Amino acid sequence: MIRKVVLSVLGFVLVSGVILLAATVPARWQIQHINPQLPDWTALDAALHQPGGPLSLAYINTASQATTLGELGHPAIVIDWPDGRRFLIDTGMPPAEAQAFGEPMELLGAGPTRTFGAVDVQLGNAVQSVKGIAFTHLHSDHTAGLPGICVAQSQAATVYQAPLQQKELNYTTEIGLAALDDAVCPRAVLGEDVIMPVPGFPGLLAVSLGGHTPGSTLYAVRVAGKTWIFSGDITNDLRSLQEDIPKPWWYSTLVVPENVGRTAELRAWLKNLDAQPEVTVLPAHDVVAMAAAGLRGFDE
Ligand SMILES: [Zn+2]
Q1: How far is the CA of 285 from the centre of ligand 1 (A)?
Q2: 228 — phi, psi (to 5°)?
Q3: From 79's CA, which of 146, 199, 212, 297 has a CA 20 to 30 Å away?
């Protein structure tokens, strides 16, 4: 009897493992074939040299969780132009979504999720001056804050997407896309190019990356001679970038189907950018690195 139970449990685990792997085959095939051209530093540097660029930038952390690999924050980046307009890169999560996101992480040894309020709440009146929003990729921990921002605005901001982020979806980004579909903000697609300027926001550039998701996108901006590069989830922290540490194999295979050859190439490319004078690369979840790099917390 016990043998029978053990065998059927083992069989169940094996069959579900095979089904899970089979279900992720199309997504893994797709991401292996997304390798957009990367610009070198000289080209990025020249493109960032724009009149009328932004004045300042800050971050708003919506939630944080202590994990075995360090602090995992869920921030939005706020960029200010001289005419008072603001742009957001990623939108973090409202408290309920952040708690739900953190629960499975606790099973893997992470601490409880601490929440600090949705981006629209932390922005206060400044939410009205947000005129553009973009995402490093369409995972719900980056997009869930969007609907709240759009409804709080008297005139909704435009959501900008790189062509690959708009066209190439998988079962992980379709969940994050739901927040864009729920939001009342209109959407625009950037022009097809290696370096994609965001129209109306001089000095803000996008570069398609792939690797983590088909639509993973880098955003770069220069403020007072210093270049800030937001690399999304190519790595979860700055140390993994600087020391060339890949994510665990089970994460890149079963949790989020990644192109691990591409993420390795991107780590080397981003490390090289980070080594340039007056350039700081910041992974999306590394709020500790953001504070250490001198990025200030948002206050009106
Ligand atoms: Zn993320």
Answers
A1: 7
A2: -115, 125
A3: 212
In the chain, what are the domains? 34-297 (3.60.15.10)
Ligand 1 center from residue 236 Cα (angstroms): 8
Distance (angstroms) between ligand 1 centre and the Cα of 183 equals 20
Residue by residue, what is the 3-state secondary structure of 3-26? Answer: HHHHHHHHHHHHHHHHHHHHHCHH
The CA-atom distances, in angstroms, between 93 and each of 18, 76, 130, 135, 259 are: 33, 9, 17, 13, 26
Could you read off the pLDDT of 112-162 as tens digits, one per residue? Answer: 999 999 999 999 999 999 999 999 999 999 999 999 999 999 999 999 999
Q: Is the pTM of this model over 0.90?
A: yes
Phi, psi of 18 (to 5 degrees): -65, -40
Q: Which two tokens stand for residue 26?
A: 């199309």
Do 287 and 71 form a contact (C-beta atoms < 8 A)? yes
Task: Determine the number of helices (DSSP H) and then strands (DSSP E) in the chain.
Answer: 13, 13
